[in-house]
Design a protein that fits this description.
The chain is built from no helices and 13 strands. By secondary structure, the chain is mainly beta. Strands 6, 7, 9, 10, 12 and 13 form a six-stranded mixed beta sheet that branches. Strands 2-1-5-3-4 form a five-stranded mixed beta sheet, with no helix packed on it. A two-stranded antiparallel ribbon has the order 8-11.
Amino acid sequence: TGNIQLVAKWEIHTYTVLFTEGVASQEVEYGQYAIEPTAPTKEGYTFISWLFNGVVFDFNTPITGNIELVASWEIVSYTITYQLDGGMNHENNPLVYNIDTETIVLSEPSKEGYDFLGWYNGETRVENIERGTTGGILGKQKSLKLLKGQQETSL
């Protein structure tokens, strides 16, 4: 009998990198790197980073096991601009809101010698800002000037 040479054969492990927010998972060979996906979007929020066990994940880290990466978000604040045309805004009318702000019921401003006719965003009358609303709002008041019993529109 002669000498025997045995050759080891190997198959590299493949691991799954799962992403939240509906982002496709990746199959990555041991020691290789996950590819950072395009940032997901979520209305009313700004994507910050991918987290692994609560820590920002570095995509230069070799993959050595199955992992799940969780999207980290920051809520976006939106500005409400009131065009008062010389009037005084009501103290209950907020200047900012976000997608999670409870519904805001807008209060009437005051202007001496005028009746308030409503808040408008463009030609659309706005009485409240519903929870879940996104985007800045420009509120312009419409009022009627009281002048010797006649009505004069002031925009």
